[in-house]
Design goal:
Length: 374
């Protein structure tokens, strides 16, 4: 994560990409005579939005440009700083039982490599426009005792989803029951991720919200588009944090949450409502799949969504609000008013989340984490 420092009079301003940050401080012991050298630290926020644009039938609308979007924060107009158009083409997988050799991308490396840098242009308004930059996708798989009957079918659906993702994207595979296991950290090596999927075994109670919060924290450290795809086969019965905390952190760090759940969870109204709220608040979707075919269809829908999202960012204009900030995105022009927009509706300023210099969490040595020491 790169930090930019600017000196404005007696103010030192630090900017950190894609974080929702606000740190203000001064040394109260410094004498008044030395006020000219006092440094106040204020982090400039780069807010990132992932926006889906569809018609009334749910078809994605492509070929839009930065000038087609208008963004306001607390009704204050914002200037778009960067703009990214989708992920490029994705490989189609026709069914959950597809052969690994036939559906795998042709260029799977033997070791982890960084994706190619996206092509970048500057439009007439000075907006940096990127193409096919890829996504950072975290898959969070329920391996609790709810999964016994559908375990193998779920593994197949996840493995096919991994193979179908575009080459520019990096994927991590985590699993959870009572604790979180980071089986494969972010990588472009599809074989390593699929191997992590195949190595999972069913286990203990389900602490979904604990594990999802930790996954959001991992994603929050990254630049660029980031999404979490949750596969849950039942309600949460072991977490110490509420789903509202997870949703707020994801909103405030620009992390999309997609949830694929089964009818077992849908039959439990509290969990079904929580899944729907979390996904909607972050600009994602919740799916309730009754069989393995519907699970595969849900993964296909998520892949298509990620490949058609517009990702834009802006540095907020002066705003005294230090709490929840409401974001509104709309399309400009009469011809575009008929389309629908899906994105997060705001964020809350959060403390700084530290990150490694290479913007990767792959160096994290700990494999099993439980936020509740008890």
């Amino acid at each position: 994560m790169k930090r930019v420092t600017m000196k404005i009079g007696s103010f030192a301003v630090f900017g950190i990409c894609s974080g929702i940050l606000l740190l203000v401080g001064a040394d109260p012991k410094r004498p008044a005579a030395q006020d000219d050298s006092t440094n106040f630290r204020v982090n400039v926020v780069l807010v990132q939005l992932n926006v889906a644009v569809t018609d009334h039938k749910g078809n994605y609308i492509g070929d839009l440009h930065p000038e087609d979007f208008q963004v306001t924060e607390d009704k204050i107009p914002q200037h778009i700083a960067t703009f990214e158009e989708g992920n490029g083409n994705a490989v189609d997988v026709s069914h959950a039982g597809a052969s690994a050799d036939k559906s795998a991308p042709a260029a799977v490396a033997a070791k982890d490599t960084q994706p190619a840098a996206p092509s970048t242009d500057m439009d007439q308004n000075g907006v940096q426009v990127s193409h096919a930059a890829g996504s950072n996708v975290f898959i969070l798989f329920d391996t609790s005792n709810y999964m016994y009957r559908q375990f193998v079918f779920a593994q197949d659906a996840i493995a096919d989803f991994v193979r179908s993702m575009d080459d520019a994207s990096r994927i991590a595979f985590y699993s959870y029951s009572r604790n979180l296991s980071r089986a494969a950290t972010l990588t472009t090596d599809r074989y390593r991720v699929v191997n992590g999927v195949r190595s999972t075994v069913a286990g203990d109670d389900a602490a979904l919200y604990n594990s999802l919060l930790l996954t959001v924290e991992d994603a929050a450290r990254l630049k660029g588009r980031k999404a979490i795809v949750v596969f849950s086969n039942g309600p949460d019965n072991a977490s110490s944090v509420p789903p509202e905390d997870v949703a707020e952190l994801a909103q405030s760090t620009g992390t999309i949450i997609y949830i694929i759940s089964t009818r077992l969870a849908q039959a439990e109204p509290v969990s079904a409502a929580a899944f729907a709220r979390m996904s909607k608040a972050t600009g994602g979707r919740a799916y309730f799949a009754g069989n393995w075919r519907q699970e595969q269809q849900a993964f296909t829908s998520i892949r298509e969504d990620l490949s058609h999202l517009y990702t834009l960012s802006y540095y907020p204009q002066a705003n005294p609000n230090r709490g929840w900030r409401t974001i509104h995105v709309q399309l400009v022009g009469k011809d575009l008013q008929k389309y629908h927009i899906r994105t997060r509706d705001g964020y809350r300023l959060l403390p700084h989340i530290a990150a490694p210099d290479d913007n990767d969490v792959a160096s994290t040595p700990e494999q099993n984490t439980n936020p509740d020491p008890k």
